[in-house]
Amino acid sequence: MRKLGRIIQVGFTYAGTVVGAGFATGQEILQFFTRYGWPATLSICLSTLLFVSLGIKLMLLAHDLKARSYEDMNTFLFGRSIGRWTNLFTLFTMLGVSSVMLAGAGSVFEEQFHLPYQWGLFITLCLSYLILTKGMQAIMAVNSVVVPLMLCFIGMVVWHTWSLPGSGNWLELTSDFSLGQTGLSPLLYAAFNLSMAQGVLVPLGGQIQDRHTLYWGGVTGGLIIGLMLLAGHFALSAQMPGIAQFDIPMGQLISSIGWVWQLLFACVIYGEIFTTYIADLFGISRQMEQHLQISRVWIVLSLLLFTYIISQFGFKSLLATLYPLFGLFSLAWMFMLIWPRKRGFHTN
């Protein structure tokens, strides 16, 4: 039972790291899958396969390397010379995504709770400091709460959608997108999210001694991600094309159930943003600890301050500018993960 609980914790941590602001609001599901029509169902199956197989591979490889951070992983995948540039780009990528998540937290407070944007930033920074200074166990504990709540809400949306006239759209909806665009979308989605998740999955794999726990944790996490993708696509397809006009389409679906549930769902969205934010900052802090001879507390405080400054640009502008660039890099990273060369690299 103890081992099963550990597997579930790893799975929830994996899923919680991937499921961020875009996923929880429904925007990622809409942009990467639902707008492509019925082929999106097949695309989700492909993404799920990638999340399961590459999530397992990433954690087991980190376990074998005894990797301390994503820097050790990228050095193994790309070699020392190219790996330096890869690590630098990954650092800026994670800082950018972290800033997007913090800005998203402020937007949730402003749009959903009708509280000042800066309040959302300040509360998120304080909570993040408490979690990040506690380490991996605290991150796993947070995800063990947030991910089951998200699963419950997704299940409720599916149950509500089941009786709607458009409930069969997920298998019938057509679109004008080309086959190439439809086929590339799940690869981009899996690549981007896996490359960002390495900030937590690599030290997690290096820290947990039991390979079976990592293997089945990867299976559990990948399947949870796939299940939530499919459920979200099913619910959003039933409301197409009208649902595409909303910034938070999933929140719009919840609002039809009742305002109390909408408020609770806003809390879950915030929780998903928070888990991704602390996951990215944890990955960066672990990498910086390998080079800077200063305490974790000062590293965490510096990272929190940096993301706070960048978050002042706002959620939407950061999202539109940074994510397309990150997506191209992530495809190259995923390619190297699938076909890594043996370089005789050791992290010790």
From TrEMBL:
Keyword Transmembrane (UniProt): yes
InterPro entries reported in the protein's UniProt record: YkvI-like
TM ranges: 7-24, 36-60, 88-109, 115-132, 139-162, 182-202, 214-236, 256-282, 294-315, 321-339
Keywords, ordered alphabetically: Membrane, Transmembrane, Transmembrane helix
Keyword Nucleotide-binding found: no
Protein name per its UniProtKB record: Transporter
